[in-house]
Amino acid sequence: MAAQLYKTESGRLFHAGAIAIITVGLPARGKTHISRALGRYLCWLGVPTQTFHVGQYRRKLVQKYSSHDFFDPANEMTTPQRQQAANEALDDMIAFLLGGGQVGIYDGSNATVEWRSHMLDRLQKNNIQTVFIESVCNDETIVDENIRNVKANSEDYRGWKLEDAIADFKERIKVTIPFYQTIEDESLSYIKLINVDQQIIVNNVQGFLPSRIVFYLMNLHTAPRAIYFARNGYSSGENSYKADSPLSEEGHRYAKNLKQVITKRLQEREAQGDSPNNQLKIWTSTRCYSYSTAEYFNDHPVRHRKSLAEINPGICDGLTNAEIQAKYPDEYEAHLRDNYRHRYPRGESYHDLAVRLESVILELEHEKQDVLIIAHESVLRCLYAYFRGIRPERAIPDIAMPRNVLLEIRPSAYGIREMKIGIPRE
Amino acid sequence: MNHNNRVACVMVGLPARGKTYIAQKVCRYLQWVGIQTKVFNVGNYRRQLTGAQTDHSFFDPHNEEASQLRLQCAIEALNDMLRWFKKDHGVVGIYDATNSTASRRRLLRERLEAADIQVMFIESVCDAEDIVLRNIMQVKLNSPDYADGVESETIVNDFRARIEHYEGVYEPVTEDESTFVKMVNVGSKVIINRICGYLQSRVVYYLMNLHIVPRAIFFSRHGESMYNVLGKLGGDSDLSPRGRKYSEALPGLISKHLDGQNLTVWTSTMRRTIQTGQHLPYPKLQWKALDELDAGVCDGLTYEDVEQQYPEDFALRDDDKFNYRYRGGESYRDVVLRLEPVIMELERQHNILIVGHQAILRCIYAYYLNYSHEELPYIKIPLHTVLKLTPRAYGCDVEQYKFDIEAVDTYRANPKRPSSLKRVGAHTPTTSADLRA
């Protein structure tokens, strides 16, 4: 569990029960992309979430994929297997939600009214709120791109020629179309996404989590871009949060080198025709050594954001680990036991930091331009964990974010690609 | 705020669909988070041009003379809005009128887009008769369009006739190429089309969280703390004996004013608010975001200490208290930003009691009562006093209950400024207690 918005006496998220999110749509409508992104976001919010991909159940059941015939709803031979996969995924999701899970995401095409009402029936009997997310796409170019970039590389087509895989997948869509029924029942809770983010219809959706999900979906996009992480330059003077010291000489050197490294990288990407229209934006915190590190980027828009400030150390400000141990042994012990959640008196925990970074994450999801974030390592750890889908618990405080490295992250449908570029010290 | 990010929210909908309510709320919310926002209400232009009391025949589309006048008002309001964007560096302008025809909307779009302003239509559709009637009763009966003493039945009938004139020509927004959000029956269905920009998505998210179920929000500062007694800033001290007495008296007063309804208590993560809430028999939540403004290096000092040790800072803070950020700490502006999720959640919730801190409650209070950023840091929120806020369609009722338990006065007036500050926005709250200095 990560960044719950608040703490309750029982430790459970307060104003939401168990929720099932069910994707609906023809193949290659970005359902898996949406499921994954949502799963990542909800995990980040501290909501116990699990995604159930029907495709994975099917692959377990039928190890070797032959061709689109398997998916033809008129194919009676394969119907039992398809049903078995769908039912197993549903069983597992219900078990997860009854066993303490809060959100289950059921990723499949769920194309018929009959099957959907069967699911709804079973979920309602178990007191589980259901929200459908239907992805409708009538823009062929989006579908084509999705088939080419995502589907043709899936496990089903290992060893296939690209063009054969594309042709087979298109057949897979074609056989499904006659059986596909869009959601029309206005009594259901549903969200319809039309051509990714062009239009969103929200019907009968209430509650804290569902409304956050809509907000998140409004900001989700699939346009290619890069996000860069770099640490603040070295500060001069005392090692103190409250002092808010300026950059040291070494810090200024670092800032200049950072500028050079990223400029070179952007030119390189431009030469490769990689998102050439992007214009780099820079976000820093409102701490002196953070915004001063961006001082040399006078040709890029720079934004100072308070929410990007590092963890407030509270009463331990300016102390070394040994001093903390000597002065506040109990707190020190508690911190060792849980360095993600423990908050030094008057300070912040990683958990608190993660909550405060939520608006940054949404805005970052929304941003179509490249962004360079210059911040403290605690902040970069949290942001990185979000993009990598790292389960926070103990992991976040130990993620390595070395000082002289520029980290490049490229979000894509199934996870992220990353690249580390050294920043010279001299 | 970047020049390219200017947005015009153009309201669309039949009369009595809550357009003005939505426009005012969005305006208040954006102003509060520090975005330059203003509402341009075409009805006000009409009332200026023709005088207030006009009966429904003025809104008959076949009444050519009146149609001409109405168009003139629409253009004047639009011109004023464009001028405001240009001269006053406005960021979000809200154009509040029925804008019920596609041709009117085209005209607005052309003029606004020519000025490099993004247009977002906000349409409120309502076919639930009870909601419309409730809106007429609640709002229109007090409208300046009807003089005092007119029978309410006469008003309702005249207003219904006015709605009928519009219904004949009303064309719902179907312009797929434009950005719009369509809300059907107060959010039971929402259609969001071509949202571009984070700012727009935030406005939509805010709209989705609004509800119209009546509720009350109670505010209480923590009971008097040991630091209050010592005159020190910040800290995480326990309650004083008088503070403990207050915490014991609080449950009685709250239950008296709650009429048996449900309540949830929100506190900060600091000892003094948790201790103050400890005897309240309701579900409780702790929010880190509700912790008191962080005074950085000045934490634990008295005002006198600050004046001596950081004379420059002390003076700077008096010059611009809203924007002054304590060394290594926070400003009021920082606090407003971190409180935004709290406000969002408050909009969604029903009855809430916030046991909070002086600076925090000032910020939340300013949101509900539309105080300017200059005024906000000087709002009086005394100790051992409960405030009850009841949000209404246009404003917010405030009741104040003072306990008979003594406490120190932590209010510090601005020595440099007289207390006659102006309030922003068009709306005037119907407060029963004036909390300003």
From TrEMBL, chain A:
**Keyword Ion transport applies:** no
Q: Which GO terms describe its cellular component?
A: cytosol
Q: Name one GO molecular function term.
A: 6-phosphofructo-2-kinase activity
Q: Name one GO biological process term.
A: fructose metabolic process
Q: Which domain of life is it from?
A: Eukaryota
| All residue ranges annotated as the 6-phosphofructo-2-kinase domain in the record | 9-224
Recite the UniProt keywords alphabetically: ATP-binding, Kinase, Nucleotide-binding, Transferase
Instruction: Give the matching InterPro entries.
Output: 6Pfruct_kin, 6Phosfructo_kin, His_Pase_superF_clade-1, His_PPase_superfam, P-loop_NTPase
Name of this protein: 6-phosphofructo-2-kinase-domain-containing protein
- The organism is Dimargaris cristalligena
Organismal lineage: Eukaryota, Fungi, Fungi incertae sedis, Zoopagomycota, Kickxellomycotina
UniProtKB/TrEMBL annotation, chain B:
Biased segments, Polar residues type: 428-437
| InterPro entries per record | 6Pfruct_kin, 6Phosfructo_kin, His_Pase_superF_clade-1, His_PPase_superfam, P-loop_NTPase
Source organism, top-level taxon: Eukaryota
| GO MF, one example | 6-phosphofructo-2-kinase activity
Q: Where is this region: Disordered?
A: 416-437
Pfam families, alphabetized = 6PF2K (PF01591), His_Phos_1 (PF00300)
Question: Is Disulfide bond given among the entry's keywords?
Answer: no
Q: SUPFAM superfamilies from the xrefs? A: P-loop containing nucleoside triphosphate hydrolases, Phosphoglycerate mutase-like
| UniProt key word Transferase | yes
- Coiled-coil spans in chain: none
Write out the GO biological process terms. Answer: fructose 2,6-bisphosphate metabolic process; fructose metabolic process
**Domain annotation 6-phosphofructo-2-kinase: ranges:** 3-213
What keywords would UniProt list here? Answer: ATP-binding, Hydrolase, Kinase, Nucleotide-binding, Transferase
Q: Which SMART domains match?
A: PGAM (SM00855)
- What does the record give as EC number? 3.1.3.46
One GO cellular component, as annotated: cytosol
Family membership noted in the UniProt record = In the C-terminal section; belongs to the phosphoglycerate mutase family.
Query: Protein name, please?
Result: fructose-2,6-bisphosphate 2-phosphatase
Q: Which organism is it from?
A: Dimargaris cristalligena
